[in-house]
Structure formats: C-alpha cells, structure tokens
Design brief:
The protein is built from four helices and no strands.
Amino acid sequence: MRLKELIRVIITEEMADVSVYNVDAELYCSHEKIGDKLWELYTTISHDKKTRLKALSRISKEGVGFRQRKTEGACSIEASLRIHEDRARKRVLLYRGLLKLLDNPESQEMVKEIIPREKGYLAALTELRAELRRSEKA
C-alpha cells in the first residue's frame, strides 16, 4: 500500500474509533462492576484519537474532515471490549506499516510515539475484559 493510501485508511479507522468509543462509553458506563473504568478508558482513548487526527493531517498534508459519525454500539459489553481489542491490534499493525513508509524524521517520531500508546490501550482493554470475566464468575 502506498503512503497516501495507508494514511487515508488510518484516518478513516481513527475517525470511526472516535465515534465508536464514545457510543460504547455511553452504552456501558453504568455496568455495575467495570462501568467507571470502561468510561474512563474509552473516553481517554477517544480523546487521544481525536487529537491524533490533527497530527495525521499534518503528515498527509490534507485535512481529515472529521465529524462525529452516527454509529451503533456493540451488542454487549464483552463484545465491545473484544472488538476494541481487535481494532487496537489492527492499529498497531497499520502504524508499523506507516512507520516503514515515512521518510520525514518528525513524522517518524510521531508514529513511534503512537505505537506504544496503542499497545498500552490494547493491554488495558485486555485487562478490563479479564476483569469483566472474573466479575461474572464471582
């Protein structure tokens, strides 16, 4: 995939993430056991991704045209966490691919900072899903 195409894919995916994290945060924030943690994590990730879109627009040298999209939430809290884990894994791969294509040192540094954050989000999502499972067994 060429650089410009990959950046468009990433921007599209990040815009979708912003919307979906917000919808799922609203849907599942009242969960008795993990609702507060989920709200905090999802809104933090959504805010980071929205901020990240501005940086991506600098790399692409085009605007991202962000607008909140109407999306449906996941059918369950478990599904929400699983879907977001999968999306975080995909983001790590996309950003690694982007890093290989970039030749601007400033852009490379920005992407190098994003990858560990995505890995951290993945770890937090995985832990929250494990906590959900433990709470359902108790």
